[in-house]
TrEMBL record:
Mg(2+) binds at H133, D173. This is Ribose-phosphate pyrophosphokinase. Involved in the biosynthesis of the central metabolite phospho-alpha-D-ribosyl-1-pyrophosphate (PRPP) via the transfer of pyrophosphoryl group from ATP to 1-hydroxyl of ribose-5-phosphate (Rib-5-P). One of its GO terms (molecular function) is ribose phosphate diphosphokinase activity. Gene3D superfamilies: 3.40.50.2020. The gene is prs. It comes from Alkalidesulfovibrio alkalitolerans DSM 16529. SMART domains: Pribosyltran_N.
Length: 316
């Protein structure tokens, strides 16, 4: 039974297609919202229906343009707070600034914490997200955070596409070993690790391979693909060590800078991602990118949150 009023789903301008797909799964319609930009760049927000006493979910990834989408989300939260919504859940499939979760040099901000404070003060009661870059970001909030995993969606495709193959799951760096091990267990695959050294932000060099990939289908696993430098370098290393076929899999397709060109010219047979971030025109034309939707997963989570059912049943 819903304890927080009628269900309302809204969408910012970051990923309206995903919001529509979520509503299709739930058999409801998006609540109308006016989101415009004034000539000086300021954002105008107006909720187009009564939300007093309602249980509201806002779908808005804080992807590129990151600062615009983040500010828009904050303004929508404030509008809902002032419109007396009973509870407001921010559905942020991709949480921007998540890679800036600690101080790595002196006199630097912890940007992921600042974003958490901003959203909390703006009026958010709960956060629903997918595959946070750093799980400890959940501790930056003094409110409930549901961090879902896209693994079941990606694994279903990989199991069907490469059934019967000798698989090895490859982590492109030491930090992703736990994720790769979990995928490997579900796929019945072995594990390999790329030893990576990073000298500058967005620039990495893959050095050594730990494990055997010879004559195997190598699945390179990461939480996101940004400039694709790391993941494409990993494919070259795997091919040099005798991999039969290279496949990339990641939740968030950030795909900035030269990423599309790099992936198109890489050794990968396919690059499997989700729609937490909408693909740009160039990415849609890339023959190697295959998109799996998280709409069904988010719809189930929204239903369970709204009805006060367990969300942990989705962590499989």
């Amino acid at each position: 039974m819903a304890l927080h009023g009628d269900l309302r789903i809204l969408s910012g301008t970051a990923n309206p297609q995903l919001a529509e797909a979520i509503c299709d799964h739930m058999g409801c319609k998006l609540t109308p919202i006016l989101a415009e930009t004034f000539s000086d760049g300021e954002i105008r927000i107006e909720i187009g229906a009564n939300v007093r006493g309602a249980d509201v979910f806002i779908v808005q990834s804080t992807c590129s343009p990151v600062n615009f989408n983040l500010m828009q989300l904050g303004l929508i939260l404030d509008a809902l707070k002032r419109a007396s919504a009973s509870r407001v859940t921010a559905v942020v499939p991709y949480y921007g600034y998540s890679r800036q979760d600690r101080k790595v040099v002196p006199r630097a901000p912890i940007s992921a914490k600042l974003v958490a404070d901003f959203l909390s003060v703006a009026g958010m009661h709960r956060l629903l997200t997918i595959d946070l870059h750093a799980g400890q970001i959940q501790g930056f909030f003094d409110l409930p955070v549901d961090n879902l995993f896209a693994a079941p969606i990606l694994l279903n495709h990989l199991k069907d596409a490469y059934k019967g193959e000798d698989l090895v799951v490859v982590s492109p760096d030491a930090g992703g070993v736990e994720r790769a091990r979990a995928y490997g267990k579900r796929l019945g695959a072995s594990l390999a690790i790329i030893d990576k050294r990073r000298d500058e932000p967005n620039k990495a060099k893959a050095m050594n391979l730990i494990g055997s990939v010879k004559d195997k289908v190598a699945i390179v696993l990461d939480d996101m693909i940004d400039t694709a430098g790391t993941i494409c370098e990993a494919a070259s290393v795997l091919k040099d060590h005798g991999a039969k076929l290279c496949v990339a899999s990641a939740t968030h397709a950030v795909l900035s800078g030269p990423a599309i060109e790099r992936l198109e010219n890489s050794h990968y047979a396919e690059v499997v991602v989700t729609d937490t971030i909408p693909l740009g025109p160039k990415a849609k034309e890339c023959s190697k990118i295959k998109v799996m939707s998280v709409a069904g997963l988010l719809a189930k989570a929204i239903h369970n949150i709204h009805t006060e059912s367990s969300v942990s049943v989705l962590f499989v």
